[in-house]
Amino acid sequence: MAFRFLPLRLLAVAVLTASTSWAYAQTLAFSFDDGFNPTTQPQAAQWNAQLLESLQQHKIKATLFPSLARLGGTDGLELVASWSAQGHWVGNHTASHKSLADPAFTLEEFIADVELADTAFKDLPTFTPMLRFPYLKEGDTAAKRDGFRLWMAAHGYKSAPVSIDASDWYYSRIFAAHVEAGDSAKAERVKQHYIRHLLERARYYEQLAKEVLGRSPAHVILLHTNQLNAAALSDVIAAFTAEGWTITSTEAAFQDPLYAQLPDTLPAGESIIWALAKAQNMPNLRYPAEDSVYEEPSLKDAGLLP
Ligand SMILES: [Zn+2]
Question: Could you tell me the distance, in angstroms and rounded to a whole number, from the CA of residue 94 to the centre of ligand 1?
Answer without folding.
Answer: 9
